[in-house]
Amino acid sequence: MAGDAGAGGRIVPRMASPFESEQTASKRGTIGAVTVFRGHILSPLSNGGWIELRDGTLEVEDGVIVSVGSAEKHDVDLRPNLIIPGFVDTHAHVPQLAICGVHPDGLLSWLRKWVYPLEAEFQGGRARELTKWFFREMLANGTTSAALLTSAWPESVDICFELAREYGVHAWIGPPLMDIGAYRRARVLEEAEELARRWDSKRQRFAVTPRFALSCSEELLQGAGDLARALDLPVQTHLNENPDEIREVRHRFRRSYIEVYEDAGLVRPNSLFAHCVWMGKRDWKKVRRVSHCPGSNLFLKSGIMDWPAATNSGALISLGSDVGAGPDLSIYRVMRQAWSIHATQKGQGPGPEELLRMATLGGAEALGFQDIGSLEPGRSADFQVLDWNRIVPPGAPPAESAHDLVSRIVHRGDRSAIRHVYVSGKLMPPPPETERRTRPVP
Ligand code: GUN
Ligand code: ZN
Fold first, then answer.
1. What are the tens digits of pLDDT across the range 377-388?
2. What kind and span of H or E run contains 118?
3. CATH of the domain at 79
4. Does the CB atom of residue 119 touch ligand 1 within 6 A?
5. Domain ends where: 348, 366, 384?
6. Buried-most residue among 47, 59, 105, 442 (CB within 10 A)?
7. Distance 438 CA to ligand 2 centre (A)
8. Nearest ligand to the C-alpha of residue 241?
């Protein structure tokens, strides 16, 4: 059986109809290794609908899905477990995994007390070990693509690109640019340009990343805008996150937050803005890509994003863990945070299909990657395998709808329900929790 629905809508069951890309027939059996995965397939589709195949197959050649259907034969039998797309986390700070959960007073004091000292030390062997740990944690949580901020040290950027390439994940990666009140000042723009020229590629994009308005001089902001334009690079930054921050931006720059970025040429079609909690109508008209970080916004007492205003703005709204202001790299948790916060807000909050779509295809669209985010021919075989018995409790109605199944995934999924994660059809290493860490004796 298959399910289909309109954009963000409820899934309506329909007959199974295996579909193939046009090139599939000619490709099959010719070049490359073909692997057929079999299981309960569930995915949003780029046409706004959904597919559900209770006994479906995913045919993968050279890491790319070439057909989704109901083939007779398989190489990897994952039944009765669920196969869903990997998540796309559109905002996370690599060095900050180490400070997840430390009690904050507020954004600005948290940055000064915890974040900057931690990032200042994020280089050398320590950066390599912890970046590897970050990627393994990310994959263990079902996230196969992300927009990432490293530390401001170029070495940390090199390491992040190397590992993203090694694992094969699609990513935006950028060092937070700072020349005010922070741990780096000199040569940040020159280094950013060198790094962009060294690393920017189709799958791993170098993102120009002015940390936020308060960490940058006008010259640095302008230089960042010039760099993005000159090399046609994506931009990621924080915007209108926290009342204290916004007050200080107005005080220093004498104009609104978005105007500061606009004047520097940083509001571009592929600029991604994290948070967007305190936005006026005019602000919403100017942003096209948003990373919504509901857990972080609560944790740092920043506020609650206006969900109806965000979705009515026409911007691409995606989800971010914002580690380390988020407690971990679980996009399952982020979907539930968004649900809990907005369901009780005035207006309509997101339903389960909207949340799962935002966590996958929505994130891919926000990052401009057209070859990830869903289980469709032509897309990278990036998927998670969910233990059916962890998602659907015993005694559940046997013929429940795909809508109910999506809801259960959103509300019951977590890393312990994930059996395997594949990127480009390749099985990722198991999560790192087997390595026991001991606290050093003081
Ligand atoms: N604004 C500037 N830097 C940061 C950061 O590291 N985390 C969050 N949440 N907001 C920021
Ligand atoms: Zn952030």
1. 999 999 999 999
2. helix 116-120
3. 2.30.40.10
4. no
5. 366
6. 59
7. 29
8. 1
